[in-house]
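Narrative of activities, Objective 1.

The group set out to show that a structural description can be obtained from nothing but a protein's sequence at a throughput compatible with the screening campaign. Below is one input-output pair from the validation batch, recorded exactly as produced.
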Amino acid sequence: MKKIMLITGASRGIGAATARLAAARGYAVCVNYLKNRAAADAVVADIEAAGGQALAIRADVAEEAEVVELFNCVDRQLGTLTALVNNAGILETQMRVDEMDAARLNRILVANVTSCFLCAREAVRRMSTKHGGSGGAIVNVSSAASRIGSAGEYVDYAASKGAVDTLTIGLSREVAEEGIRVNAVRPGFIYTDIHASGGEPERVDRVKAFVPMKRGGQPEEVANAILWLLSDEASYATGTFIDLAGGR
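Output recorded for this entry:
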């Protein structure tokens, strides 16, 4: 059976690292992106140069119609999905809760939570034996923030990742008898571009002293965990979380 993976938000950081590793392990990969076409094309070019198969598709995964079309494009251009990585997410400027407005909160929750539900829905419709599928696996990219809370910085982001954790548990139980495994990774301080969105590009270097391992993580370290959870080696793992936070 051909292995086909869709990774949301795959033009940079953890998503891009996961796309490259997945292709190296035999997956045909859809690199979803929202704004940075050049970065997504570069990931595809890297994969193709190494002999793999990939394509880039633009879609805002917070928009239902665009999610439906994204999955339909994968159906047409690659085939039936076997793996989904819900990686897309946003961060906004560091701020206390008493400074946040509803517009910010809604942006965070739609981008980080609604997107995961919509993509999971479309994946289940294709993978579930209840719907005539052959099974598959989903990995949600949560965050150590869901356990820690990110006080004084990103409580809204942390809360959105708490919702992703709950989705992971609930959905894993809902589809466990239908051939689908649902797991999550919870990265800690990882060197990616997302910190610039919060107004502090060098955040990992500032806070790494609080990590027991005294360093930030690399996107490839997270990608390795994602690929393990998607693999047959993790065949009895569902509703499971892997914390990648250096011991924090």
